[in-house]
Amino acid sequence: MTDSSTAELAGVPNVAARPAGGTLRGARVLGVGQLVFAAWCLVLLVAVGSLMAGHWYTLPRPEPGDPRLARGLNALRGPTEGDHWLAAHVLYAECRCSRRILDHLLQSRRPEWVVEKIVLVGPHPEYERRARAAGFVVEIVGKAELAERFGLVAAPLLAIVNPTGSVVYSGGYTDRKQGPNIRDIELIEQARRTGAASELPLFGCAVSARLQELLDPLRLKYARGE
Amino acid sequence: MKKILDTIVLPAAVSDFELRYLERVNRVGLYFFALHLPAFMLVAYFNETGVLAALGLTLAVLGCPVLANYVLRNPRAVSVSYGFTAMLMGGLLVHFGQGPVQIEMHFYFFALLAMLALYGNPMVIVVAAGTVAVHHLLLWIYLPSSVFNYDAPIWVVAVHAAFVVLESIGTIYIARSFFENVIGLEKVVQKRTAELDLRNRDMRLVLDNVQQGFLTIDLDGVMSPERSAVIATWLGTADPGTTFADYLGRHAPHTADMFRGAWDQVVGGVLPPDVSLDQMPKKASVGERHLELEYIPICEGDELKKTLVVLSDVTVEVQRERLEAEQREVLHMFERALNDKSGFLEFFEESALQVNAIVSGEVEDTVVLKRIIHTLKGNSSIFGVTTVANLCHRMEAELAEEGQPPTAAQRNELSERWKALRVKVDTLLGENARRKIEVDDAECEQILDAISSGSPRPVIAKLISDWRLEPTSRRLRRIAEQARGIASRLEKGPIAVDFDAGDLRLDPELWTPFWSAFVHVVRNAIDHGIETADERRAADKPPEGVLGLTTRMESGQFVIEIRDDGRGVDWQAIKERAEERGLRAETEADLVEALFSDGISTRKIMSEYSGRGIGMGAVRAACAELGGAVSIHSTAGAGTRVEFTFPRTAMSAARRAQLVA
Questions:
Q1: Nearest CA-CA distance, residue B262 and chain A, Å
Q2: Hey, is B418 helix, strand or coil?
Q3: What is the CATH number of domain A67-211?
Q4: Structural domain includes residue B660
Q5: Residue A178: which region, alpha, beta or left (left: phi > 0; alpha: psi -120 to 50)?
Q6: B102 and B231 belong to one structural domain
Q7: Which of A35, B203, B401, B576 is most exposed, with minimal Cβ within 10 Å?
Q8: pLDDT tens across B436-476, in order?
């Protein structure tokens, strides 16, 4: 190897192998540029990491024995529905996961022996119209009201209440995030059959402002006021 | 650990090939990442995850490789930034690809990790995997449950990480192999080349430290650039494409001309290569250096492709041989001097005059110069002074063939050689040897008898005066001895030399030039006249040739006769040569005249002794100097008789003649 064909790098990754400007000013500009580059990499690492946090984080859900949840859910029953099984679908109008569940609810054959209610954190007139058209009773609540009445901060969430008014299930719809197998009917059947249902993690969207801030500190995901 | 580090960290040196490769692959990588922008926007659009967010975030991530290309001068570092960028792009894809295939979007990470092997730099893989690891670590610190999500047990996370680690290890190995065997191929070649260079250096060390020079020449005679260094020391440097003949011709033009002529025959392919190469010149003189040339054919099958020329400096050997030859020459010379001291001294003094004439360069008449050189050559040969004879032979050849008088170098060489001989002669025989008068027993007795018997004083004075004169018997005896030597060297076998001197004496000082030239007639008689023993037997003659020498007084004139019983003069050949030279050749007198003309010889091949047709002219000229005349009588197959007739007064100087009177 001849001297002219080799750039000795001294083991430092950013030592010049290509011709540099040669002037002191050029070297300074290059140094500043490299600092900017390093900072940029760091920012991106945090930014993209924050995006992941929203996806990976298993959303909080109240325990089935939470009295506030039971109280809020039982309040959804109509006058003649006191001795029926109740399934409440808590959906968030700004959450794609919630819309997917809504679509599933509207497209699937619903069991007739259970009273199903939709609690929509909205408003979202279209969702409301479509759900009512399909025969669902829809109750519109705000983010703060959801937390106050039900103790919930994330959606979509399925809650199953037995005829005695006890919450036997509160959790997600799928085994994994965005899983194609939405198991709501299976869970409801299981609950009626066994008195309880397998617990599934809650994947979806943060609803409360506090949870949104926690999961998306850079406001990348919920920047649109989700 | 060191082995792992050595695997991951590439050697610092970046070859030109790697540089070009990385610049190209980095450029392709930048285009690849740029294409993520529309792709991610489409993904975001179909998954309703925010097209504008996809635009903004993807552009932000794209800023990383773009910045790297501007601010990182080492293309390897740029590649490393691409490893980082790839993982960030994976993060964006997973985010914007939220939907039923969101899990599958994670395949991007594994695909990109594998693709990064194309950079041939394990560090790119390490940085990519490290980015993912740091990413997870940061999230774990920030939100522990985000890493161990959906309440997955730690072994699930371990399996997840294991795949990344396994792929990274494999990819690092592939990247390093790619670097070593593909990107680093140039280095492998360079390493091999360096090894070959080392071997070549070793070989060159050997070649450069032997006193032989090696070079090869192609069929055009062009020398290969690789040759022993010693050749440049001997013959100087040569430009690429120089032919060996031109190279040699700078110092040895004559050898170069011989080379060119012989080389044409070699490449002509008429003869087998080894046979034709054997005709090439084998010696060359370069200044004081003597080179020996050997030619070794390099063939493919029977076809000559190249020739290896081996040059050996044989100066020492040549000098040793020359010294030995000179030593032999001196010994031979003194042997002759001991046998015939006065004859040798006469030769030496007469030859000294001839040497002076040649060395001075003052002889402008070419014919005279030729005669002088020819006479010196002949006598030197007879007296065993072969170095002078050989030098005269070369000068004579150039004078005859090119009409060029002896060069300054040749004259200088002759002068130096003669000086050296003179020193030897003066040392061993005495500087004033020539001035001494030698008196043999008979002469001494004669003068004693004359005094005892009371002879008159004039008679005694004459006898003493005669001591200064040379008896022709002594001269003829000397010539007879020389004739036998010539016959022996010419392989004419032993010859009988009869001589009859009479009781005659000659003034040696007057007659030395004649006797000096007379040797040409003797040589011609033996070389041209007397046949070999076989030829003589075939001609019904005794195998032993006979040469007769006589000095006598006839009709008041002094006659010197030389005769042989050989084949006689080939008058037809003389006639042809004369006609070739535009001389008259009609009558017998014309042919005799032609015989004594310079350049006429019946021989077509010159020898050390005769063949140039100069001797007869020289002897006639010497005869004429003494006022004599020469006649020739020849009978085909019976022999030749040459008779020199001088006036009586030519025999000795006038003062002595008066004294005698």
A1: 44
A2: helix
A3: 3.40.30.10
A4: no
A5: left
A6: no
A7: B401
A8: 677 778 888 888 999 999 888 888 888 887 777 888 888 88
